[in-house]
């Protein structure tokens, strides 16, 4: 087995300013599928011209993280797939270490890097060497997938537009007796909340707040029912309502919009609306 047994999948949304660092960190012999959540033909043409190992698929609409990744996963022909966020970069040994680890642990469904964020790079908790650690879930920015383990589970729940989709997937895997690991000697760096171009930062922040709240309620409802989930999110709903009022009275329009989005996301989830909100870009 080699790194040619891996297909990298990257879901993007107007990430042309961010994606180059990510792509430059991937070995040029590794197939990369980019699912661009727009219909921007210029992005596709530029990426495929610049990177010979890249195929860019235009979704035609902003369909979210899980659904777009599913498009890529259904096209994978290799034994393994690596889901990456566009604001992630691989350490130069990451792909080789993923492959090496598949020979040590053969019963995994997902592996993730032990370093989860750049700020954790020098953490005292980081293990320079040691065995893979069995966990309940990993963060979605870097998920190394053994494709055969998903035949009876499926991939991401497409009801989640953004947030909780990887936690939901991991939960379904664990419930089926499948195993998830963090691997100490695999490094993937992640900036976090910066995968889009700077020009749409404000609208993406509003969108993240809406979907974080919507997905929080719906994830809990999926596994715990409506009533328990309502009481879980009630403090968040009360806080959002109070802060909308406070920031309205103090004329802090930016903060008011953020907490209005949180309130709206929760309200729409509670009344059973789908994850309909899209950034206005």
Layout of secondary structure:
Blueprint: E1 6-12, H1 19-24, E2 31-36, H2 41-50, E3 54-58, H3 65-73, E4 80-84, E5 88-90, H4 94-104, E6 108-115, E7 133-135, E8 142-146, H5 165-175, E9 179-190, H6 201-224, H7 226-249, H8 253-270
Helix pairs in contact: 6-7, 6-8, 7-8
Task: Describe what you observe in this structure.
The longest helix is centred in the last third of the chain and has 24 residues, at about 200-225. The protein folds into 2 domains: about 5-190, Spore Coat Polysaccharide Biosynthesis Protein SpsA, Chain A, CATH 3.90.550; about 200-270. The chain has 8 helices and 9 strands. It has helices at about 20-25, 40-50, 65-75, 95-105, 165-175, 200-225, 225-250, 255-270, and strands at about 5-10, 30-35, 55-60, 80-85, 90, 110-115, 135, 140-145, 180-190. With about 280 residues, the chain is of the alpha/beta class. The radius of gyration is 19 Å and the shape is globular. Strands 1, 2, 3, 4, 5, 6, 7, 8 and 9 form a 9-stranded mixed sheet that branches.
Sum this structure up briefly.
The protein is α/β, with parallel strands linked by helices. It has helices spanning 19-24, 41-50, 65-73, 94-104, 165-175, 201-224, 226-249, 253-270; strands at 6-12, 31-36, 54-58, 80-84, 88-90, 108-115, 133-135, 142-146, 179-190.
The top-level CATH class of the largest domain is: Alpha Beta
Described by the principal axes of the CA atoms, the overall outline is: globular
Give the helix proportion (percent range). 40-55%
Number of domains: 2
Poorly predicted runs of 5 or more residues: none
How far apart are the termini?
43 Å
Largest sheet: 9 strands, mixed
Structural class: alpha/beta
Q: Evaluate the radius of gyration.
A: 19 Å
